[in-house]
Structures are given as structure tokens and as C-alpha cells.
Specification:
Elements lengths: L14 H7 L2 H15 L9 H10 L1 E5 L4 E3 L7 E15 L5 E7 L4 E2 L1 H6 L6 E14 H10 L4 H23 L3 H5 L5 H13 L2 H17 L18 H82 L1
Antiparallel strand pairs: 1-6, 2-6, 3-4, 3-5, 3-6
Helix pairs in contact: 2-3, 8-10
Length: about 325
């Protein structure tokens, strides 16, 4: 016994009758769809007769690259099963940022949420590579789930996977960390430039140079300039001047590299602050809309209450 119910008990007509009534070309197309459905995990629990009955009802679509299958907010009419090609599932948040949820490839399906609850589409679908797909409408889905109730677990698993991904993306887009945005992208040279720049602006750097200069000058002025350790850079200390100049040139390059990276870091920080401010502004606007809506509801209810209270008094006055 198959794990799912027999399709003949569900469909209004047995599959054999359909096969005899259809032309040979259509029968071959149905057979090809049946083989295709058999390789898709969502339909793996159906037996041969149930797959053939389902394939009989499905439609095929072919769309070129760049076609928008549906937009967020459109009514949900169908579930798509990709045969060939690639479809990008995405939406835009309140700040206009494009958030990609999934890239559906061969044997993947999408569009099941709106098909199940008959609500509007939650995301948009854009064809990234020429698409060849099967289309399952609401009636076909009911027929399929009635034939194989256990397949509903696959639909729930797919929806759970997309929900987790959506939650992760929304969490990361709501509050990005400037350190995470920049630290992991630094090269070895940038890390060295940051370390040198930080060290050159510290007190230990100053104390080390003061000590080195004092020893250098002390060894090259009387009375130590005539000893075995001194006298190798007499006044006006040309070698010291050249060394300090070279150090200043090299150090300035590293400082400029670090400053340029800091500018990029500040740019990212400004973008994040702009997103936060924009989201706060949108939330305030939404609150204003809710307050206005509540005010209108209260005013309407008060007006209806006044009318209901005025109606009995008016009728009593008429009776008198």
C-alpha cells in the first residue's frame, strides 16, 4: 500500500479514462511530467497513478530572463515548481533595501504561502535564468494534499526554512554592527596600517623616540663623541635628520591608509545611522496613522452613540 491515498478515489474520473481520451502527444507530455514530478522531493510520496493524475492537471510556463512572475502584494494564484532556470525571491523593506530570500533552482518550489492562505504575495519573483516551470493552482493543491496528506509536512518544512531565513535577514538589516561590517574585510596591510597609526599616536611611541634621540645625540656630542661608541653622526646630525625624515614619510603613508579606511568606515556608519533614523521616522509616521485611525473610530462611535441617545428622546417628544 502506498503511503498516500489512491488518486482514483479523489479525482472525479479515473486516470485510465483520461489517458484513453487524450491524444498520444498529450499522453507523452503527461508521462514526461510524471517522470519529472517523481524526482521532486515534495512529490516523492506519491505512487505512479497519483503522479500521473497530478501531472494531468498541471500547466507549464516558459518565461525569459528578466520576467517578473509576480510582485509583493499581488493575489496568490499558483505554486511554481522549477524544472529549468532560476528565480530570485525578494522583497524591499521600509527603507527600500532589497532583501533576497532565496534563489529557486531546478526541483525547488515557491509561492506556496499565498496559495495556501489565499492572501497576497509576500515577496516578488524575478526570473534570473530562462524559466521552465510547472504551475499548481489552489484546486490542484487541494487535490494533491488530499491524495497525499503527508506531503503537507514538506510544505511546512519549506515555509519554516523561508521563515527562518527571513527572520535572520530582518534581524541583520534592522541593526547592523559597524565593527562586523568592516573588521572582517580588512587586509593584512590595512590591519598593519591601523596598528601603526594607533601606536604612532600613543605615549609609548613618544617616549621611545625621546629615548632614542637622547641616546643618539648624547653619543655624538662631547665628551662621548670621542669614545668607541660615539662620534658616528657629528653635529648637525645629518644621519639622524635623514632617518627621521624617512620615518616620517613611511609613517605618513600608513596613517593616510588608516585614515582612508576610517573614511570608508564612517561612511558605513553614516549609512547605518540614516537607516535607523529613517526607520524611526517611519515608525513615528505609522504611530501617527494609528492614532488618527483611533481618533476617527472614537469620533464615529461617539457620533453613533449620540444618534442612538437622541433617537428615543425625539420619539418621546413626538408622542407628547
Amino acid at each position: 500500500m502506498p503511503s498516500c491515498l489512491r488518486a482514483e478515489l479523489i479525482l472525479p474520473f479515473p486516470h485510465v479514462k483520461f489517458a484513453r481520451a487524450r491524444p498520444t502527444l498529450h499522453a507523452r507530455a503527461v508521462a514526461a511530467r510524471t517522470d519529472l514530478l517523481a524526482g521532486i522531493p515534495l512529490f516523492s510520496l506519491l505512487d505512479e497513478h497519483e503522479l500521473a493524475a497530478l501531472a494531468e492537471r498541471l500547466d507549464e510556463v516558459r518565461e525569459p530572463e528578466g520576467t517578473v512572475l509576480f510582485h509583493a502584494g499581488d493575489p496568490g494564484e499558483a505554486l511554481y515548481v522549477v524544472i529549468e532556470g532560476e528565480v530570485e525571491i525578494f522583497f524591499k523593506n521600509a527603507t527600500g533595501e532589497r532583501i533576497v530570500l532565496e534563489h529557486a533552482g531546478p526541483r525547488d518550489f515557491f509561492g506556496e504561502i499565498s496559495l495556501i492562505d489565499l492572501g497576497p504575495r509576500l515577496a516578488s519573483a524575478l526570473v534570473k535564468k530562462p524559466l521552465h516551470a510547472l504551475v499548481i493552482d489552489h484546486g490542484d493543491l487541494e487535490q494533491f494534499l488530499a491524495a497525499c496528506p503527508t506531503a503537507a509536512m514538506d510544505l511546512m518544512a519549506a515555509m519554516g526554512r523561508r521563515l527562518r531565513e527571513t527572520t535572520r535577514l530582518l534581524r541583520s538589516s534592522a541593526s547592523r554592527n559597524i565593527n562586523l561590517e568592516t573588521e572582517d574585510k580588512r587586509t593584512a596591510v590595512q590591519k598593519a596600517a591601523d596598528w601603526i597609526s594607533d601606536f604612532s599616536g600613543s605615549l609609548p611611541f613618544l617616549f621611545i623616540h625621546v629615548a632614542v634621540f637622547a641616546v643618539w645625540i648624547g653619543l655624538n656630542v662631547p665628551p662621548l663623541d670621542h669614545t668607541a661608541l660615539g662620534g658616528w653622526d657629528a653635529y648637525p646630525f645629518g644621519l639622524l635628520t635623514m632617518s627621521v625624515s624617512l620615518e616620517a614619510i613611511i609613517l605618513s603613508v600608513f596613517v593616510l591608509l588608516s585614515q582612508n579606511r576610517q573614511v570608508s568606515r564612517d561612511r558605513v556608519r553614516n549609512d547605518i545611522e540614516y537607516d535607523v533614523n529613517l526607520k524611526a521616522e517611519l515608525e513615528v509616521a505609522h504611530l501617527h496613522e494609528k492614532v488618527d485611525q483611533l481618533y476617527e473610530d472614537v469620533a464615529r462611535r461617539l457620533q453613533n452613540l449620540e444618534r442612538s441617545l437622541a433617537a428615543p428622546s425625539g420619539s418621546s417628544t413626538t408622542r407628547r
